[in-house]
Specification:
Elements (H helix, E strand, L loop, with lengths): L1 H11 L6 H19 L5 H15 L11 H16 L20 H20 L2 H12 L4 H8 L3 H31 L1
Helix pairs in contact: 2-3, 2-4, 3-4, 4-7, 6-7, 6-8, 7-8
């Protein structure tokens, strides 16, 4: 991203205020990735700050020839999450709720229950599959960017993502089938 490279050059030239543009441009991706890899708690905000601080302190190590700033930053986030040493348990798919929900309360409750189930299914995935799913499907990164962050080959990312999608598809189909059977009986 040209904007990132420009900001990095300004920072290296002594304009530390230019780092704010990098934070603003990438904070949602960093926060969403951390929240996807850590248990539900308030620690993710502190960890996001640590990620940006580490990026600022080690900016001289960033090499645009090896990938984008975003890829490098999300790799730092992944490593910080691993350092925390906790087993990931939840992924939040709906970051920003609708400001007004005009549906009936039972429909709202049904959706909330569905998202909780989906969160539980995502949490049940092995960490490698969950990370591939979060990076490619939720963050919209390319296979190459996800491979760089995961430090694996592109084929490995594709394989992990395929297995994650297949398992999620089967799990969701089982739930739908069970609900249909319960509704009939």
């Amino acid at each position: 991203m040209h904007e990132d490279e420009h900001a990095i050059q300004r920072i290296k030239a002594g304009d530390t205020a230019a780092f704010r543009s990098l934070v603003e441009r990438h904070q949602s991706a960093v926060c969403a990735t951390i929240r996807a890899l850590l248990p539900r708690n308030s620690e993710w905000e502190d960890l996001a700050q640590e990620v940006f601080l580490a990026a600022f302190q080690h900016l001289e190590k960033f090499a645009s020839t090896k990938g984008t700033f975003r890829t490098w930053l999300l790799a730092i986030a992944r490593n910080r999450c691993r350092d925390v040493g906790r087993r990931p348990i939840s992924v939040r798919l709906h970051e920003i709720p609708d400001p007004v929900d005009c549906r009936a309360p039972d429909a709202q409750a049904s959706d909330a229950e569905w998202f909780e189930r989906l969160d539980a299914f995502l949490a049940a995935l092995p960490e490698e599959q969950r990370l591939a799913f979060v990076l490619v499907e939720m963050q919209g990164l390319s296979y190459q960017e996800a491979a760089d962050i995961c430090e694996v080959a592109i084929g490995t990312v594709k394989s992990r993502l395929f297995r994650a999608k297949e398992w999620l598809k089967e799990a969701l189909q089982r739930v739908a089938k069970d609900e249909n059977c319960a509704a009939r009986g």
